[in-house]
Amino acid sequence: MAAKSEKSNVQQLQASSSSSSSSFSAKVHPSELDPNNNNHNNNNSSSYSLEKFKLYETRQRFYLIGSDRNKRVFRVLKIDRSEPSDLNISEDPVLYSPKEIKNLLQRIDEGNRATGGLTPVAKVYGIAGCIKFLESYYLILVTKRRQIGSICGHAIYSIDESQLITIPHVSVQTDLAHSKTELRYKKLLSSVELTKDFFFSYTYPIMQSLQKNVHFMGEQGMPYDNIFVWNAYLTEAIRSRCNNTIWTIALVHGDFKQTRLSIFGRDFSVSLVSRRSRHFAGTRYLKRGVNDRGRVANDVETEQIVLDEEVGSRKGRMSSVVQMRGSIPLFWSQEASRFSPKPDIILQRYDPTYEATRLHFEDLAGRYGNPIIVLNLIKTVEKRPREMMLRREFAHAVGYLNQILSEENHLKFIHWDFHKFAKSKSANVLAVLGAVASEALDLTGFYYSGKPTTFKRANKISRTSTGRYVFLSKHIDLYPFKHSNALFCLAYKVVSD
Q: Which residue, 131, 115, 105, is CA-closest to 186?
């Protein structure tokens, strides 16, 4: 398991009590627009978000009508159905009022009466993607959603139902569109369960941490190039043709949990957001270790967000801590077998320069900053060596890379045999993990929206810090690093499986 705390620079935080809480999303919600503004020709897509849609069809086209949450602003997306294998999409640049969109639909219906008119197809909450197999293009639509929480007033949703819509009209489809191979591909796509572990937001970039969203507020559109957006490829065709992200939703795979609590009469909300990387993804045993690009299997970023309930009134406070975990960045694998509950660990390739491992840590440094601390939880003692081999090779990799890295960017390798420690009746696992986390946070800091009343300098070791180090040294292996104020630095990472 790997965890990492995001670098925090209090002086650069833009989310102060007087400015950040009101406008840190990538989009301004339509409900915040001036209700007296009747200028419907403003097609700046960064000033609103589309959250509710209705799909209509004629023989020649699909019409996707999108509106903001309060149904005050309407847009039209036209999808051609006359081509059996091409995707032709055009976005109407006009912003319509409720009355104007009603009149438009009536005119479309009247103009297509000879071929069946305009027919409603589905109530939609966003396009999750567009895909083509052998011939026809298909739309992946979210038809039911459920709100699972909110961050600073920005709703977070999960998917309850989705639907696959064939774009070409049946009259122009060839036999290839109904072939066994095409139907098999459609069945495989339908087996992807979007109702489990996927979540999204129309107005808040949930694929990024709170700190990044505050620092980069004002940027237009959702960042689909983010490693935690799983449908980036599926939505690329629509986003590129429309040159915006208002028609599609960015799906994050992981988990979102939120609860409310009260401490001394003050209300807070606590959210845990886990984001799984789409790179080198796979099921347990089938994907292990690292690939040639430095991407590790089971790369999961978890963020803890604490929000004061007064945050919407600009008086509240926000805080965030980010952790990261992933598979050990070496070339290794396991062969799953029903006859072996603990498959053998195979070191597939020996890389004398540990190039892939270096790329992995460079990626982490780019995402979170330097230096990086590695807390390795795998076993040190086994009757039949399995994890021990990984520990030894990983330690060699870290030692080799530290010879190349500058001293201030050295990787800090800490080993703690979690399984051995947990077997003791007197073991207090939470106490050790809590001490590790506290020591790290003392030096890394965490994101906080207001000005702190006190600031602890990282180059001074307090009595508490020294005592905590003595406690840790009794339970975990700090080799090969001596006690110093750089033991736990700006980043914190745990690597294990």
A: 131
Q: 218 in the Ramachandran plot: left (φ > 0), alpha (ψ -120 to 50) or beta?
A: left
Helix, strand, coil in percent for the chain, rounding step 5: 25, 30, 45
Tokens coding 384: 């039949």
Phi/psi-derived region of residue 206, left when phi > 0, alpha when psi is between -120 and 50, beta in every other case: alpha
How large is the angle between the packed helices 463-473 and 429-444, nearest 10 degrees?
140
Give CA 140 to chain center in angstroms: 20
d(CA 318, CA 214): 11
Q: 218: which 2 tokens?
A: 């004002």
Residue with tokens 């309407």: 74
Global confidence as pTM: 0.82
Cβ neighbors of 492 (< 8 A, separation 6 or more) are 3, 4, 5, 323, 373, 375, 437, 440, 441, 444
Residue whose token pair is 């195979």: 346
Give every CB contact of residue 398 below 8 A, 6+ residues apart in sequence.
374, 411, 413
Burial 320-348 (b: 16+ CB within 10 A, else e): bbbbbbbbbbbbbbbeeeeeeeeeebeee
Q: CA dist 296 to 88, 101, 278, 281, 439, Å?
A: 38, 49, 10, 8, 26
Strand partners, 321: 304
Could you say which DSSP state residue 203 is in?
S
Q: How far is CA 226 from the centre of its chain?
A: 8
> Which residue has 């694998």 as its token pair?
333
pLDDT in tens, 172-225: 999 999 999 999 999 999 888 999 999 999 999 999 999 889 887 767 789 999
**DSSP string for 56-123:** EE-SSEEEEEEE-TTS--EEEEEEE-S-SS---EEEEEEEEPHHHHHHHHHHHHHHTGGGT--EEEEE
- Residue, of 280 and 419, whose pLDDT is higher: 280
Nearest C-alpha neighbor of 273 from the set 206, 195, 364, 369: 206
Encoding tokens for residue 139? Answer: 């739309």
C-alpha 368/C-alpha 8 separation (Å) is 10
Distance in angstroms (rounded) separating the CA atoms of residues 61 and 320: 46
Residue in 234, 351, 343, 231 with CA at minimum distance from that of residue 291: 351
Place of tokens 């602890």: 456
How confident is residue 431, by pLDDT bands cut at 50, 70 and 90?
A: confident
Taking CB atoms within 8 Å and a gap of at least 24, the contacts of 174-182 are 174/84, 174/135, 176/134, 176/135, 177/84, 177/134, 177/135, 177/136, 179/134, 181/133, 181/134, 182/133, 182/134, 182/135, 182/136
